[in-house]
Design a protein that fits this description.
Shape: globular
Order of helices and strands: EEHHHH
Largest sheet: 2 strands, antiparallel
Oligomer: single chain
CATH architecture: Orthogonal Bundle
CATH superfamily: BFD-like [2Fe-2S]-binding domain
Distance between the termini: 44 Å
CATH class: Mainly Alpha
Bound molecules: FE2/S2 (inorganic) cluster
Amino acid sequence: MIVCVCRRVSDREIASHARAGMDFDDIQFELGVATQCGQCESCARDVVAQCSANHPVAAIQLASRIQESAAWHPSSVSASA
Ligand code: FES
């Protein structure tokens, strides 16, 4: 989804930079998001907050999703292993 229409920046681009450890200011400088009309700034900041590695809410949500996913089943771990 395009977050910044003026600079054609997608949520995936913002998320990728946030996961790499960049904060909003760094991402803004790198991608130019929210540097023209500014209408996208709050949405772009939300994407950064959700994807930031040190964001505690995101970490809790991610941990919950991992536990609920089919890839993680503690009962399927064999006792003989
Ligand atoms: S929509 Fe991002 S600066 Fe205008």
